[in-house]
Write a structure and sequence with these properties.
The protein is of the alpha/beta class and 207 residues long. The chain is built from eight helices and five strands, in the order E-H-E-H-H-E-H-H-E-H-H-E-H.
């Protein structure tokens, strides 16, 4: 099973993905659950992550197309060297983000278009499709109030309007036909424990 967590910054997706990993390792066995993040989780993908969202240049801004290709490259490395082998061996993979982040960020917030994003990611994904997508649903003001570390992530420096656009992108993802019955909204307000309980209530019937 391939389970991904999605949401805007400060939504709690990273925290909750780690809590679910711990929960499932206790339930299924430590070596039966793999945790990855996008972009990242391999040395190559981590270097691309820094290039895509942690590095700045004087007098030049990264074009959205460049962003999209970099994320697809990192995604290909993670999916084909970690995720696919794990799934082929019957393991559960929990991922902090997936290609849907590119759809939400680059399709809507950066105006590239869904068709462009899907074409760029077609070979990277190569039929490695999430079984469950937990979307951490939270209002922008609350999410931004939880965001403190803007040094290594250019997205976290963006204003509220940018994240409203991303939230609209996820709304579009939810209505996308291939994601029918895979996209699960989780109310991300409240304590981490309250949010975790909501996730487990949705997850248990799918195991």
């Amino acid at each position: 099973m391939y389970i991904v967590f999605e949401g805007i910054v400060g939504s709690g997706k990273s925290t909750q993905s780690k809590k679910v990993v711990e929960y499932l390792r206790q339930k299924l066995g430590w070596d039966q659950v793999i945790h990855v993040r996008e972009p990242g989780s391999t040395p190559i993908a981590e270097d691309i992550r820094h290039l895509a969202q942690g590095k700045e240049w004087e007098n030049e801004i990264m074009h959205p197309l460049t962003n999209a290709y970099l994320y697809a490259a990192a995604r290909a490395q993670t999916l084909h060297t970690i995720v696919r082998p794990a799934l082929d061996n019957g393991k559960v993979v929990i991922s902090d983000r997936s290609f849907l982040s590119s759809v939400a960020y680059q399709w809507v917030a950066q105006w590239l278009g869904m068709g462009t994003i899907l074409r760029i990611n077609e070979e990277a994904i190569k039929n490695i499709f999430p079984d469950v997508i937990f979307y951490m649903d939270i209002d922008v003001e609350t999410s931004l109030s939880r965001t403190f570390d803007t040094v290594w992530d250019k997205w976290e420096k963006m204003g509220a309007d940018f994240f409203y656009s991303i939230a609209r992108g996820y709304d579009k993802c939810e209505k996308w036909k291939p994601l029918k019955d895979r996209f699960v909204r989780i109310d991300a307000h409240g304590t981490p424990e309250e949010v975790f309980d909501r996730i487990i209530q949705k997850l248990e019937p799918k195991l």
